[in-house]
Amino acid sequence: MCTRFLIALLLISGCGLLIGEKEEQEMFENPVFTEVYFTTDYESDERPDRGLIAINYNNPKEFIVLERGESSFSPVSLSTDRKKLIYGDHTLTGSDPQLVIYDLDSKTKEPLYYDEEKLRLLTSKSSNIVWDKSGDSFYTSSPTSWGIINTYLYSLERMAIDFETSNVASIYPYDLISKDTLLIFTNEFFSWEHGVVNPYLMDKEGNYIKKVENPYLRSINEGGLIKRVVRNLAWSDSLRLIVGSYSNSEEFEGSKIIITDLDGNVYKEFTDGKYRNRAPVWTKDGKIIFTESRVKNSDVLYAGLKILDPETGKISPFFSRYNYPELIGVGTAAL
């Protein structure tokens, strides 16, 4: 059933944006959520307004503004039941983004707390949030006071942490590859002698299942310098494939979108590595939406979304700030 919003609808014309009056508007059947930066009242020495928008996947020229202000809106993640969004709101803490939950039915948001007593806000420096298949809980990661990155399983029913990894190593989640199995990053087995970091599989209790023996997913660190790294891994249940963002400082300046399987029997590279192609996500119909950043030191400003058909290799613009004069940047997608 469609969700209805009382919000500002941006009506898109071939010449740019027409900002309509507030009216009751139906949410798109297949929305893509992303963070944007607005140029309105923007001065070069000031931070532009940010916003959270829903784009119509079936017609990307249409989008709805859900929120606008000083929040960071990153990372944005849609729940598996497609009823809730999680994103960061730095205005509550003044430092690391405070995670908030946005209810798409009631159009309300509320902060998340580390415990049921609500004594500590749940913050995050993670670039990824992984939802449980039920949509009632999610995994995220945040650094401890001594710099170790812990992964948490957060229960929305209790509004508190259900599970936390140990402080022995930095661990953060990439994605769920089954109901009970996480694909993760960990540096627990890293050796400076060999300089190789592999992804691992972990169960929901924090126990390692096995190392992922896929050479295409290995990161290489030589003497503290990252030579090769694969980030932003996302799993497709239907295709049994992983998409990621691949960087290799010795071969190309930017990053490429790649697909592979768990064992490395399938591998294909897309894009030429000229720009930073990052944060890929799978669509329902087996395509891939990713962010292309053309400015080296900025993830959002002057960036845009592109869509890739992995069967044909065709890459097309999906949503770009270059088409809309009121936008100066686009973040990562959630769908």
Kindly report the spatial arrangement of strands forming the biggest sheet: 2-1-5-4-3-28
Topology order in helix (H) and strand (E) letters: EEEEEEEEEEEEEEEEEEEEEEEEEEEE
Radius of gyration: 20 Å
Helical segment count: 0
**Largest sheet, if any?**
6 strands, antiparallel
Show unreliable segments. 1-23
Give average pLDDT, whole number: 82
Counted beta strands: 28
Q: State the helicity in percent bands.
A: under 10%
Structural class: mainly beta
**Alpha-carbon distance between the termini?**
17 Å
| Percentage of residues in strands | over 45%
Instruction: State the shape.
Output: globular
Labels describing this entry:
single chain, 335 residues, mainly beta, 6-stranded antiparallel β-sheet, 0% helix, 51% strand, disordered N terminus
